Input
Amino acid sequence: MTINQQDLATFQSTANTIDNDSIEKKSVEENISQTVNNSAETDLIEEELSEKELPEEDSIDITHLRTPIKVDLSPVYNFLGARTTQSWVDAAIENLPMIIQDHANCEKKAAGTAMNLIFRYEFSYDLQRKLAQLIREEMLHYEQVLGIMNERGQEWKYLSAGRYAKGMLKHKRTYEPAAMVDVLIIGAFIEARSCERFAALAEVIDDERLAKYYRYLLKSESRHFEDYLALAQTLSDENIDERVAFFKEVEAELISSPDAELRFHSGTPA
Ligand SMILES: [Fe+2]
Ligand SMILES: [Fe+2]
Output
């Protein structure tokens, strides 16, 4: 998905601000923890502060993330027109480092796409609020996956984009508000597919830490799919069912048909 240069510049300067903020936040946290350590009621306050100031579900360190015991994925499975094939799962396990990096890319692109939408469609409070939350969560996921790559000693390598997003975006209508509605519907499919693949990978991955992280992502990614879909319907004058059914077929075809490149959202390995 492309972002124009102006949006990219804004995004980059925003990213710098976020970075500075997090450095500042860290030093505040260090001060707080210093104060707490000097306190007589250390244990109790420390627990309260860590709950209050740094919720585990927002941690960049994946060690203490709260992994939901069970997430109902039936809405995701019903929404998608095809399930991931065993041959994709087998190939992904064989090429796990590449899949992990492509996942990092997906998180970054999800944030970039949402940032693009936030600048382009400023009229809707609901849209702005949901997108702001989405950007925050996707960037957190990006940082978490970078941390996983770092832990595994994995260097960033060149990776071209697969056919998946382009394969859907080429059907985007070119006039408003239809273009925005289509981007939101496509976003819903990307999120739902990510969710389905995290669940499939989590079941078979040997690395329990990574499997647990993928299970942690199910909750937010399944909510993202529903958020995108609800926004698409709210912002459309017409019922979007037909458009959803159209992209359901396109997406299922991209996932089921032979694909020469293996990526997080690629088709069946050719
Ligand atoms: Fe994400
Ligand atoms: Fe997401």
Summary: The CA atoms of residues 83 and 115 lie 29 Å apart. The chain has a mean pLDDT of 82. The beta strands are 258-259, 268-269.
